[in-house]
Specification:
Elements: E1 4-6, H1 8-15, H2 19-31, E2 35-38, H3 39-51, H4 55-68, E3 69-72, H5 76-91, H6 98-109, E4 113-115, H7 119-122, E5 130-131
Parallel strand pairs: 1-4, 2-3, 4-5
Helix pairs in contact: 1-2, 3-4, 5-6
Length: 135
């Protein structure tokens, strides 16, 4: 079983206490020592918290990341994958946000599945294995 990269929506559901996501995350941590998320997800969550001026939540989120998560960065390999998928999808007339394409590239370049509730966008990415932890 490959590790999982948590998409922004799943991590947000977890932080809000969604029971389906909490249970799946606990089961995951029985097999793996840490969670995985991306620098893109970190940005998306922090930018939303900054917009709300939620300083306590920002501190809690940063502590959670430092103690429980591997935060994976964009690499040359992930950018290459993301760029190829972007081009392929655009030629087909399918438009997906840059953040989602970058997150998919990070998951694929690290041989990870993606835990997301955003199946609508990610289902178009070649070779990306999706798990919906919200359901």
């Amino acid at each position: 079983m490959n590790p999982v990269l948590l998409d922004t929506d799943i991590l947000t559901y977890y932080l809000k206490g969604d029971q389906n996501v909490v249970q799946k995350l606990k089961a995951y941590l029985e097999r793996f020592p840490r969670l995985n998320t991306s620098l893109i997800t970190k940005y998306e969550i922090l930018s939303g918290l900054e917009h709300k001026k939620a300083s306590r939540q920002i501190t809690e989120f940063e502590l959670f990341l430092s103690t429980s998560c591997n935060v994976l960065n964009i690499t040359a390999a992930s950018i290459k994958i993301s760029a190829k998928e972007y081009g392929r999808l655009r030629r087909k007339g399918i438009v997906i946000g840059n953040s989602d394409i970058l997150i998919a590239g990070i998951a694929l370049s690290n041989n990870m599945r993606l835990a997301t509730n955003n199946e609508k966008h990610f289902k178009h990415i070649h070779n990306l294995h999706i798990e919906n932890w919200k359901k």
